[in-house]
Amino acid sequence: LKMLAERGEIDTPHGRIMVGILIFQDLCVVPMMLLIPVLSRDGINVLDVAIKMGKAALIIAAVLMSAKWIVPNLLHQVVRTKSRELFITTIILLCLGIALLTSRFGLSLALGAFLAGLIISESEYAHQATSDILPFKESFMGLFFVSVGMLMNVSYMAGNWQKIAITVALIFGLKIITGIISVLVTGSTVRTAVSAGLGLAQIGEFSFVLAVAGKTSGLISEDFYQVFLSSSVATMMITPFVLKAAPSASAWVASRHLLKKIEQLKKISEEGFPRKRQGHVIIIGFGLNGRNLAKVLRKADIPYVALEMNSDTVREMKKKGEPIYYGDGTSKEILHKLSVERARLLVIAISDPASTRSIVSIARHENPDIYIIVRTRYVAEIDDLKALGANEVIPEEFETSVEIFSRVLHHYHVPRNVITENIENVRNGSYSMLRTVELPKKYLAERHKFLKGIETETYLIKEGSHVTGHSIKELYLRTETGVTIIAVQRGEEIHQNPSPEFVLNSGDIVLMIGRRKD
Length: 518
Fold this sequence. Notes:
Layout: H1 2-6, H2 13-39, H3 46-68, H4 70-80, H5 84-104, H6 109-121, H7 126-151, H8 154-159, H9 161-185, H10 190-199, H11 206-216, H12 222-254, H13 257-265, E1 281-284, H14 288-299, E2 304-308, H15 311-319, E3 324-326, H16 332-337, E4 345-348, H17 353-366, E5 371-376, H18 382-388, E6 392-395, H19 396-411, H20 416-428, H21 433-436, H22 443-452, E7 454-460, H23 472-475, H24 477-481, E8 484-490, E9 493-496, E10 509-515
Parallel strand pairs: 1-2, 1-4, 2-3, 4-5, 5-6
Antiparallel strand pairs: 7-10, 8-9, 8-10
Helix pairs in contact: 2-10, 2-11, 3-6, 5-6, 9-10, 9-12, 10-12, 11-12, 19-20
C-alpha cells in the first residue's frame, strides 16, 4: 500500500483492485489464527474445532459489545481530563490489555491486537487515537522487521540458496498467475490484471505472524520455517523492482495476439461500439471530469463518445442515454472502434499515468491531426506527455494552486485584471511561471496600506429620519463627509451603484464606503 501511494497508483484500476485484495487477505488471517491451535493436535476432532470456534466467537462478541458501550464511556472520561498523556497511555493499555486477555483464553496475541484496533476504531475518538499512535507506527514497523531479520539463519540461507531461489520463483509464479486469473474473472482488462498480479506477488507481513504461530504449535518444521522466512524476505526485496517494471510488462503482455483476442471477447456493451463518426470528441474516463465535460458537450450539441473501464458505470450511464462503451483505451483496436482516426479532439481523464502515456502515443500515431487534452495529477508529467503528442496537459495540483493564489490575491484587493494576467501567464507558460513567479517588491504591502483606511458600513434609515424622501445628490454626502453610497437594499431588491437621483425611503439599508473617521 505504501508503494502504491508513493507512486500515485492508489486510484488506478489495478490499484483499487490491489487494495481490496490486500485488505481481504489481512482479514483472512483472523480465522487462520483461530484454527492453528486446533490443527496442531493429532487428528482433527470436529467437536474440538466447534468448541474452539465457539470460544473465539464469544470472545469476539464480548469485545464488540465493549466497543459499543464500555470503551467509548471510558475514553470519554479520559478525554474530559484534557490530558493528552493520559489519553495515549489509556489507548496503549487498552491494546496491550485486550491482546493479553485473548492470549489467556487460548487465542493469539496478534488476534487480540487486531480486536483492540477494531474496538478503538468504533469510538468517536478514533481519529485522535490514530494521530497520537501514528508516531509509534514506524517504530513498531522497524522493530517488526528487525525481529524478522533476527529470526533468519544466514548460514542456512547460504547453504540452501538453491532451495530458496526455487521457492521464490514458485511463490512469484503462482501468485502472479492466480492474481491475473482472479482479476480477469472480474471483467477487468488484461493490462489491469497483469499490473495487479505483479503487485500482489509478494508475501504479506501477516504471513510471518502465521508462520511463527505455526512453528510454535509444531505445524511446521524448523527447516520449512527457515525456507519460508528467507523466501518471504526475498519477495519483499524484489517487489519494488517488480512494481517499477509492471507498466511495461503489462503493456507487453496485453499486446500479444492471443491476449488481444481474449480482450476483444470481453465486451460488456450489448449494442457494440458506435457507427463510424466524424469530427467528434472522444472522452477516455467517465469520472467527475468526464461527466461534466459530457454534460457541456451535450448542451452545446457537440458529438462525443466516452470510454470507461468501470462496467457498473457503463451500465448506469447507458441507461441514462450516454454514448458510453466499455473498453481499454490503451488498445489500438478499441480506439479505432471509436473512430479515433476521424475524431477532432481526444480528452483523457483517467488516473493511471502509464495508461495515459500509452493512449496519447497511440492516438497521435493513428491521427496526427487530433487535438489531445490530458488531465494529469502531477506537473512533473507535463513534459513527458507533450513529448508523446499531447497538445494540452492540465495538472490537477497546479490548477488547484492557481485557484488558491487567485483567491489570496483577491482577498488582498489585488485588481482583477492583475490576477487574470497572472493566471494566463501561468497557463500559457505551461505552469513554469509558478516555479519562478515573483510579484513586484512591496506591491502587496503598498496595496494593503492603500486600502487599510477604507472600510464599508451599513446604515438603516428609520421612520422619520431627515434623509427620508431625499435623493442621494441632495444629501451632499460625498462632498461633506467623503462617504460614497455603493448599494441600497430595499426589501428583497438590491440597487447597486445607485444614481445621484435615487430617492431614499424609510426601511432602506444603505451600504457605504469610506474612511472610518468619516
